[in-house]
Amino acid sequence: MFEQVVKFIKDLYGNPESVSLHEPRFIGNEKRYVAGCIDSTFVSSVGEYVNRFESMVADYVGVKYAVATVNGTSALHAALIVAGIGRDEEVLTQALTFVATSNAIVYAGGRPVFIDSDRDTLGMGPEKLAEFLRTCTVQKDDGCYNKKSGCKIRACVPVHIFGHPAKIDLIRDICDRHRIVLIEDAAESLGSFYKGRHTGTFGSLGVLSFNGNKIITTGGGGMIITDDKDLARRAKHITTTSRLPHKWIFVHDEVGYNYRMPNINAALGCAQMEQLPVFLESKRTIAKHYRNFFEKHDIPFFVEPANARSNYWLNAIILKDKAERDAFLEYANTNGVMTRPIWALMNSLEMYKGCQNVSLDNAVWLEERVVNIPSSARV
Ligand SMILES: *Cc1c(COP(=O)(O)O)cnc(C)c1O
């Protein structure tokens, strides 16, 4: 069985010696724009490509404002700061996510609280969120408080895992009812829509990543997207060292961050944005091939959830149990097909062991079974 899977994946990618999990593709204007950037000498944090890249992404996802940063983690950090996370305030997020989500919460002075995922989306479960808020919190005049810790719960950061949208409208309604700010970690979901609307645009702020393994890349890069003018202005301000605008005088009005995306990265980003429709189409075709194959072999393949159009950034299968998962990982990785398990749950990591979590049944179930399989665009 494993043998057939490995053979299918190798065939799908034209039988190379080995197939990696996810590689970037540079098939458009990448070299031209980057060379132009070098010729102009504007390779750093000032230059036309940064603004252009921000407008391209803002137009594509359908928001008014976009602020480009050095990576997705810094975008999350800055988004949490402008959302007003105070020291020792709590932020609800998922146990099943990449570590950057929790790290950014801690950078901003907050404390993560881990909520369970849904099996059909891999994202935060709205019922699980509602249940936690019903049983573990109280509403006071100035917001939502955790009964156990006494801390204020300021924000909620759900994640659109592997590009598959979470049930974000339900999550938003629950957050609104409890006066909790919604920030979407859409790092993996550029090109994914829920009920016709782009992921990352449901809450107050959304965050994208353009790391080398994401659907498009700027080398390293991230972006904050929002429709709120004040949040956008403040995000731009603190990510550019909080410097007051002046041609030659350097005055800064608060502790800021050197998080601005350099122009040379944005040049790459502009060229990659032009290719996004091509990448999305290719990924949809790859997912269709996988779906047909795995259906025949009775292995659950992760498809886009109801009401969603996924970018199929990283494909995943669900194996029977941990033993089968480990055997498959061993076989595939030693036979030239790179595969990997989903991340270890955040509450199992040394630095997050002390964080509150409630009934992570689905997250535990998924962690033991979900495996990512090669997903690079075939272009
Ligand atoms: C990639 C990723 C990030 C962080 O982005 P970087 O650009 O790598 O800093 C955050 N959250 C999730 C879910 C990611 O996959």
Secondary-structure map:
Elements: H1 2-12, H2 30-40, H3 48-61, E1 65-69, H4 72-82, E2 90-94, H5 100-107, E3 111-115, H6 126-136, E4 137-140, E5 143-146, E6 152-157, H7 168-177, E7 181-185, E8 193-194, E9 197-198, E10 205-209, E11 222-226, H8 229-239, H9 263-296, E12 308-309, E13 315-318, H10 322-334, E14 340-341, H11 361-369, E15 370-373
Parallel strand pairs: 2-3, 2-6, 6-7, 7-10
Antiparallel strand pairs: 1-11, 4-5, 5-6, 8-9, 8-12, 10-11, 13-15, 14-15
Helix pairs in contact: 1-9, 2-9, 3-9, 4-5, 4-8
Bound molecules: pyridoxal-5'-phosphate.
Could you explain how this protein is built, in words?
This protein has 379 residues and is of the alpha/beta class. Helix content is 38%, strand content 16%. Strands 1, 2, 3, 4, 5, 6, 7, 10 and 11 form a nine-stranded mixed sheet that branches. The protein has a three-stranded antiparallel sheet with strand order 9-8-12, with no helix packed on it. Strands 13-15-14 form a three-stranded antiparallel sheet. Helix 2 (30-40) runs antiparallel to helix 9 (263-296), helix 3 runs parallel beside helix 9 and helix 4 (72-82) crosses helix 5 (100-107). The two termini are 28 Å apart. The mean pLDDT is 97. The structure holds pyridoxal-5'-phosphate (PLP). Residues 71-73, 97-98, 100-101, 159, 185, 187-188, 209, 211, 222 line the site of pyridoxal-5'-phosphate. Pyridoxal-5'-phosphate binds at residues 71-73, 97-98, 100-101, 159, 185, 187-188, 209, 211, 222.
